[in-house]
């Protein structure tokens, strides 16, 4: 069944050939294993980064605790002063499970009958209940609260649709959308009462 190799020189040549083939197989296997390990490591890193980003987009949201408007006399329609809302005050907090949220990196979009306005919050729009300002306008705990004030008559959030003055009239509706730096969004709809009296200085929306 097996051929006997009697010549010692031929026996040695067969052994060297087998050794070369074996070494080549080991090298190929080692290279393949290295490629697989590197690829697996890259995919794991990419998956972790994608997972963290996706989680942030879902969880790092703002929660609107309360919303109100400042009532004053405005010439919105161009037909003389009437009771209207010139400023919005909105108290916000972290949503459950959210990480730190820097409010100076939050963008706000207003959409309603008066048009569409979008801008990023500035320090002047934010007041922390702890009295912190500047670089400290960051929500870090679930108990943190901040009041965001939006001037609808001038500045970055002027909302008027080419009327005499910006603001919200009686019966107006406005959708406010907050988008954090991670891309998580929170939308809330504001509804102005159908009647605003001279006695009112503020109203819940």
If you had to describe this structure to a student in words, what would you say it looks like?
By secondary structure, the protein is of the alpha+beta class. It folds into 2 domains: 1-59; 60-198, Immunoglobulin-like (Sandwich), CATH 2.60.40.10. 25% of the residues lie in helices and 33% in strands. The protein has 1 helix and 11 strands, in the order H-E-E-E-E-E-E-E-E-E-E-E. It has a 5-stranded antiparallel sheet with strand order 6-8-2-1-11, with no helix packed on it. A hairpin with a 2-residue loop joins strand 4 and strand 5 (115-120).
Question: How would you summarize what this structure contains?
Answer:
The protein is built from one helix and eleven strands; from the N terminus they run αβββββββββββ.
Describe the protein's topology.
Layout: H1 8-59, E1 62-74, E2 82-94, E3 101-102, E4 107-112, E5 115-120, E6 126-128, E7 138-139, E8 146-151, E9 173-179, E10 185-191, E11 202-204
Antiparallel strand pairs: 1-2, 1-11, 2-8, 3-7, 4-5, 4-9, 6-8, 9-10
C-alpha end-to-end distance = 97 Å
> What is the CATH C level class of the largest domain, in words?
Mainly Beta
The CATH architecture of the largest domain can be given as Sandwich
- Pick out the low-confidence regions: none
Number of strands: 11
Q: Average pLDDT across residues?
A: 80
SSE series? HEEEEEEEEEEE
Q: What is the CATH T-level topology of the largest domain?
A: Immunoglobulin-like
Taking the sheet with the most strands, its summary is: 5 strands, antiparallel
Indicate how many domains the architecture comprises: 2
Q: What coarse outline follows from CA principal-axis ratios?
A: rod-shaped
Can you identify the CATH superfamily of the largest domain?
Answer: Immunoglobulins
- Beta-strand residue fraction: 25-35%
Fraction of residues in helices? 25-40%
Query: Strand order of the main beta sheet, please?
Result: 6-8-2-1-11
């Amino acid at each position: 069944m097996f051929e006997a190799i009697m010549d010692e020189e031929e026996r040695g040549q067969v052994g060297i050939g087998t050794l070369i083939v074996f070494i080549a197989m080991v090298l190929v296997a080692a290279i393949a294993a290295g490629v697989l390990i590197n690829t697996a490591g890259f995919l794991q890193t990419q998956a972790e980064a994608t997972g963290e980003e996706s989680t942030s987009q879902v969880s790092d949201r703002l929660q609107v605790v309360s919303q109100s408007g400042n009532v004053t006399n405005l010439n919105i329609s161009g037909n003389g002063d009437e009771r209207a809302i010139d400023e919005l005050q909105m108290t916000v907090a972290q949503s459950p499970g959210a990480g730190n949220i820097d409010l100076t990196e939050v963008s706000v979009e207003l959409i309603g009958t008066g048009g569409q306005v979008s801008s990023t919050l500035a320090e002047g729009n934010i007041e922390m209940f702890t009295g912190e300002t500047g670089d400290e306008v960051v929500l870090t705990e679930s108990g943190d609260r901040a009041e965001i004030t939006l001037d609808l008559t001038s500045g970055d959030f002027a909302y008027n649709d080419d009327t005499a003055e910006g603001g919200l009239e009686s019966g107006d509706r406005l959708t406010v959308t907050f988008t954090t730096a991670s891309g998580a969004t929170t939308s809330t709809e504001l509804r102005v009462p159908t009647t605003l009296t001279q006695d009112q200085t503020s109203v819940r929306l």
